[in-house]
Amino acid sequence: MQQTIKLKKGLDIKLRGLPERVLPKCPPPLSYAIKPTDFHGLTPKMLLEAGSAVKAGTPIFCDKYNPEILFASPVSGTLQAVNRGERRAILEAVITPDGKNESKPFTPPDLAKASRSEVAEFMLAAGVWPFLVQRPYGVFANPQVTPKAIFISGFDTAPLAADTDYLVNGEGAPFQKGVDALKRLTAGKVHLSLCAGYPANNTFERAKGVEVHRFSGPHPAGNVGVQIHHIDPINKGDVVWTIAPQHVVALGKLFADGVYDVSKVVALVGPEVKKPRYYRMVAGASLSGLAEFINDGGEHKRVISGNVLTGAKVDINGYLGFYDNEVTVIPEGDCYETLGWLMPRFKKLSMSRSYFSWLTPNRQYSLNTNLNGGQRAFVVTGQYERVLPMDILPVYLIKAIMAGDVERMEKLGIYEVVEEDLALCEFVCTSKVKVQQLLRKGIDLMRAEVG
Q1: What integer pLDDT is reported at residue 419 of this predicted model?
Q2: What is the value of pTM for the model shown?
Q3: Which of 12, 15, 181, 221 lies most in the core, judged by the most C-beta atoms within 10 Å?
């Protein structure tokens, strides 16, 4: 019998707008984009010029310092534009689809006979290597390094998170094929974490070649970083890789059919969505077609690619992030509150007993983006430790990052965390510290100093 890892620390933020388990058709997007900003640690180098014809799987750009790592077009069509920002940094490569959805043909190796190098070379050539994310640091994986293990989180506990079981429903064969490919990349185990609160989908339950772990508890129990911490913690010098379940499915389709397919099921959720539901979309798709499903067409609303804690703010004409399987829409929060904190605030969520949310633990909220205060002295309150089920000291870690103390950052566990793991710390922070931004700053410093 599998042992359940029970986590007590954390916080479930109950928001209105959970998706209904239906999958209607989504209006076809007018454009797609692949964004270098989706990939931490990437310095992009363009391989094509605007006006070039592309197919799904055609390389658009590569990493300047690792040119074998390719980033491919999600659909067939024309590379319409390369949008740049300050210092000519590439922000996005925009593709206009031709409606044919043609894929560049690939000839996969036989997994029963292929070596690790053959599998890795095929994944690199096909542009699917960015599916793999490396810990520590949360950057795309280094193909020259063999990880000690690969981790897959089979459930998500973030606010309004898409039901992972529903996302992979009926994809048992490609998921298994993807697992078989992953097993070739590591000498260690492929770990699959499932929620202990309910039976998992057959896609997960029938998977072979994985070591299954079950977790219970509030968010962030579904974060792969928290699961790694309790299964096989990362020490200095260790490298592990993580991959999302839908990317395992896409990997399996590539090895089975030789087709680059980054389509996935995405949840449109939040209190400002008329009918929260699931839609099948392609990574990088324009979100403009979803405007009709949002109150007021998305005007004066916060549209987020991802969840409310870690997602990226986009406008309604923005694009779905490469790693995101959720689009969240909440009130913008540009309103003034009379008397501010002096009001009783019966409709506000608070982790402390400052308000009255503790009297109605099952209530669902429609929270906006107001900060409810400004940045103030960063003091030890114990709030961070109450929402982080990991044996690290988050306040002291953030202060070490502020001081630029690399040695202390190492000792305090920076190798084990990325932004999503400390997102709740930022949410409950009385001092309004930008925890995730500071953590990424510290991670970048560690990569520069330690490598």
Answers
A1: 97
A2: 0.94
A3: 221
Give the CA count within 13 Å in the CB-facing half-sphere of 359.
Answer: 7
Helix (H, G, I), strand (E, B) or coil at 216: strand
- In 3D space, the residue among 258, 249, 72, 278 whose CA is nearest the CA of residue 175 turns out to be 249
pLDDT (0 to 100) of residue 336:
67
Indicate the SS3 state at residue 358. Answer: helix
Residue 225 has pLDDT above 70, yes or no: yes
The pairing of strands 4-6 and 44-46 is: unpaired
Q: Quick one: which H or E segment has residue 191? A: strand 189-195
User: Cα 206–207–211 angle (5° rounding)?
Assistant: 120
> 145-149, 313-317, 355-359 — which one is most confidently predicted on average?
145-149
Q: Counting beta carbons within 10 angstroms of the beta carbon of residue 2, is it exposed (0 to 12), middle (13 to 18) or buried (19 or more)?
A: exposed
Residue 357: predicted pLDDT: 66
pLDDT surpasses 80 at 142: yes
Domains and CATH numbers, the chain: 32-97 (2.40.50), 371-449 (no CATH)
Per residue in 344-359, pLDDT tens?
666 777 777 667 666 6
Would you say 95 and 80 are in contact if contact means Cβ atoms under 8 Å apart?
yes
pLDDT tens track for 60-90 = 999 999 999 999 999 999 999 999 999 899 9
CA dist., res. 304 & res. 271, Å (int): 13
411 within 8 A of 405, measured Cβ to Cβ: no
Instruction: Give the C-alpha distances (Å, rounded to integers) separating 442 from 136, 137, 225, 380, 414.
Output: 12, 10, 17, 20, 8
Q: What pLDDT is stored for residue 375 in this prediction?
A: 76
Place of tokens 């429903």: 169
Those residues whose C-beta lies under 8 Å from the C-beta of residue 427, and which sit 6 or more positions away, are: 11, 13, 309, 387
The token duo for 371 is: 């900060």
Of 135, 136, 110, 108, the residue nearest 124 (C-alpha)? 108
- Contacts for 31 with CB less than 8 Å, ≥ 6 apart: 80, 94, 95, 96, 97, 286, 319
> Cis (ω within 30 of 0) for the bond into 220?
yes
